[in-house]
TrEMBL record:
GO molecular function, a single term: transcription cis-regulatory region binding
PROSITE patterns (alphabetical): HTH_TETR_2 (PS50977)
Residue span, HTH tetR-type domain: 30-90
Cleavable signal peptide: none
Pfam short name (any one): TetR_C_1
The protein, known as: AcrR family transcriptional regulator
Source lineage: Bacteria, Bacillati, Actinomycetota, Actinomycetes, Streptosporangiales
Source species of the chain: Nocardiopsis composta
Record-annotated DNA-binding residue ranges: 53-72
Length: 246
């Protein structure tokens, strides 16, 4: 069941910020949003984004789909609540140990592991709503980065750059794995066999050197290298500004 964005985020925002619809007449409702969201997250963890549906969540809760809609108007609102719940599980950046850079590295690695273990969140985070958990996390990240001497606006750019990098690498990796699901080894073997037979690597010495040295490695290695390059750039800019002030 694919995500469908509506033109009005207000219903989802109301649920995120604690506004609950007035109960309808009839039997007393026996569920709360926390249980519904937990069931939806469990379903997505087991079956992925494609397996997430209002019917599936209702079945897991032992209620009818129509009953579920009395709590959550649509999948759009449900996924907004799910994303906020997942963000709430993440440690706040200011609670992590170390310097501002070490904390950024720690939260980036946490997000990387989360996206790798829960690739369905990559779809949900494409257009996030500002819920309580996201706002609290962002404020905490800005407090951590305030140690580096950049302005809040500049540090917001640092956060967005790190997030875009982490999500981009995770999304590319997830897409590649999904496209080769079930045939990764045969695909890789045939790829290697054809390239070894037909390609003259003497015409590409730099690529060959990089490959033989291990530079062309797995996604985790690429992730760490790219994160280091990104934060080296931020740190160099921070140092230059400090030197100019002195």
């Amino acid at each position: 069941m694919s995500e469908r964005h509506t033109s009005d985020p207000t219903p989802a925002l109301r649920l995120l910020w604690g506004e609950r619809p007035e109960p309808r007449r009839g039997p007393r409702r026996g569920l709360d949003l926390d249980r519904i969201v937990a069931a939806a997250v469990e379903l997505a963890d087991e079956e992925g984004e494609r397996g997430l549906s209002m019917r599936g969540v209702a079945s897991r809760l032992g209620i009818g789909t129509a009953s579920l809609y009395t709590y959550v108007p649509s999948r759009t609102e449900l996924t907004a609540l799910m994303l906020d719940a997942v963000i709430a599980e993440s440690p706040l950046p200011e609670d992590l140990p170390g310097t501002w850079r070490e904390r950024v590295e720690a939260w980036a690695r946490h997000d990387w592991r989360m996206f790798r273990s829960r690739p369905w969140t990559l779809r949900l985070i494409e257009r996030p709503l500002l819920g309580p958990s996201l706002l609290a996390w962002y404020e905490s990240a800005l407090r951590v980065l305030s140690e580096n001497g950049l302005s809040p606006v500049e540090n917001a750019s640092v956060i967005e750059s790190v997030d875009a990098y982490v999500q981009g690498v995770a999304r590319l990796t997830a897409d590649q794995e999904e496209s080769h699901a079930g045939n990764a080894e045969p695909w890789a073997a045939r790829h290697r066999a054809y390239i070894a037979e037909r390609v003259d690597f003497s015409a590409h010495p730099l690529w060959t050197e990089a490959a033989l040295s291990g530079a062309i490695a797995g996604p985790a290695d690429h992730f760490e290298s790219g994160l280091r390059f990104l934060l080296d750039g931020v740190e160099a800019d921070v140092r230059r500004r400090a030197e100019r002030r002195d």
